[in-house]
Amino acid sequence: MVKGKQSILFDKAVYIEETACIVGQKEGEGPLGGSFDIVVEDPMFGSKNWEEAESRLQEMAMDKLLSKTQVPREQIRYIFAGDLLGQLIATSFGLKKYDIPVFGLYGACSTMGEAMSLGAITISGGCADNVVAMASSHFASAEKQFRFPLEYGNQRPETSTWTVTGCGAVMLTAQSQPVSIKGITTGKIVDFGVKDSMNMGACMAPAAADLITANFKDLEVDEKYYDRIITGDLGVVGRKILLDLLREKGYDLSSNHMDCGIEIFDAKNQDTKAGGSGCACSAVTLCAYILKNMKNRKWNRVLFIPTGALLSTVSYNEGKSVPGTAHGVILERQA
Amino acid sequence: MVKGKQSILFDKAVYIEETACIVGQKEGEGPLGGSFDIVVEDPMFGSKNWEEAESRLQEMAMDKLLSKTQVPREQIRYIFAGDLLGQLIATSFGLKKYDIPVFGLYGACSTMGEAMSLGAITISGGCADNVVAMASSHFASAEKQFRFPLEYGNQRPETSTWTVTGCGAVMLTAQSQPVSIKGITTGKIVDFGVKDSMNMGACMAPAAADLITANFKDLEVDEKYYDRIITGDLGVVGRKILLDLLREKGYDLSSNHMDCGIEIFDAKNQDTKAGGSGCACSAVTLCAYILKNMKNRKWNRVLFIPTGALLSTVSYNEGKSVPGTAHGVILERQA
């Protein structure tokens, strides 16, 4: 059922059947280290280059998901997937062996929210029984794509974030499970004119604030409706801006907002500056942490909002700003 | 209703309400020149660089669609859109002003098929009344992204194709209209190991053959079921491979197959070698030519298959192949 301007509450329920998450060594050493399905110490994941390494991450996550669910590959109707690399090469090369129809998505670091939203629309509309939503990122392929060669050893300002090496995948289904996707709120492209590619938090915070406000208005609720409102990768700088922007609109999220980028690393001891980022940041935190806390009833209602900075070296070098976007997914623990 | 392994026939019908298409001068001088909504002589479209020019194309197509339909912007629930550039910058910067939720898609030159498929799933499932599906490409931004600087003046082999400068947009709706999207067949990633970035037709033909075969099997039909089977941008080289591959499977498409890349240019007089390509190739040919021939009942049933070559300079320079994909849309003229 369409609600307000940007939201849907699904008439026919959509559930999260199973998850899989793979991360690199640094993520394994972080606060959530014990909760990931697989931690791989080799940053190349046995591959010849960073892009292949990221494809391998997608493959490992998909394999793990298939083995955990025992759903035969032929019964997975679609994969909704994406990554940060130009022309989604991590996704194309990582998923081609599965012989499953693929919808390639680009929402920058919000891709996991976009994938879950479109997967949920597809299942709720009766167009599939099982679909997989997934997203990956790799620190080294992202640095090569967006910033500097690793060998250059650039300094990292305090506002910068550390791209998470990992891949998170969820299987969505029409069959009843403990956690449902109750609805979605889909983001617009929001541009506050920020031009600092080393401050992604500031680029994305306005889009997150816009999304959260739209969700509240569409559902006629406020911040107290949710046990947790969890953004993707704003980091400490973006979180502060988000809370300020929402306070101006009359909402106080200081007690129930969390950010995956803040949770995934121990910023002080792991030198990740403002926090973690990348498509995988929200995707693996969802799988390893958020859904576990929902299954064990610590939280019953969560607004999960992967956030994305629509950064490209081409547009950046042509003097453009970095617009933000966000894709909200309303998660609910069944009674 | 789910059909076979890769197809859906929609229970609740989805219709094409209106279209808009903008092209550059070369396309305007081609065989379909008189049928486009707008032909712009300035290749920069009044912008400062090629990427901005492509964003401007998206903006012009959207503006034209809004003015033709008179549907207020607030009633468009989602835009499904994409382009060929890294991180979809043509799309992000072209569509940000509209204040409409955007799903960013990447299916290389198959993006129009992907956008229409996801838009149709969304409308059929009752999650929207009006959505826009659109895709763009620009010859110069694509050459810069994938091949050589224009100033270098590289030679073009006979197998090469010419990226169409244009943007096509369709508004999809649940309200009855002359042409419906009866169903979709969604493509897998198909890799025959072709490594020639100057022969996209050969990279994509296996994916198109796979898609067409899947469609026939899923719907339990053969080539005679359709008045036309129209691929996106195989060009003359890819078309020949497609017909050969399908002949091996027992299908003869020689009399009812068409390719947008062959239709859009006069290859001999416009020096476009094997034909046209790019996301816009199938998108603008759909709007300017295919749907017009369906409205006037020349064709009643068309399988429209935008085809995509999952090419990236990074994967290409790392020695990888160019996998293909394709997204099929089943179009039907209402009685």
- Main interface: chain pair and counts: A-B, 62 and 62 residues
What percentage of the residues of chain A does DSSP assign to strands (E)? 25-35%
General form of chain A: globular
| Integer tally of domains of chain A | 2
**Individual helix count of chain A:** 11
**Which sheet architecture does the biggest sheet of chain A show?**
13 strands, mixed
What's the multimeric state? Answer: homodimer
The first-to-last residue Cα distance of chain A is 21 Å
Q: What is the radius of gyration of chain A?
A: 18 Å
Could you please say which CATH topology of the largest domain in chain A applies here? Peroxisomal Thiolase, Chain A, domain 1
Low confidence ranges of chain A = none
Structural class assignment of chain A: alpha/beta
Mean pLDDT of chain A: 97
CATH class of the largest domain in chain A: Alpha Beta
Question: How many E-type strands of chain A?
Answer: 15
Percentage of residues in helical conformation of chain A:
25-40%
Order of helices and strands of chain A: EEHEHEHEHEHEEEHEHEHHEHEEHE
CATH second-level architecture of the largest domain in chain A: 3-Layer(aba) Sandwich
Name of the CATH homologous superfamily of the largest domain in chain A? Stage V sporulation protein AD
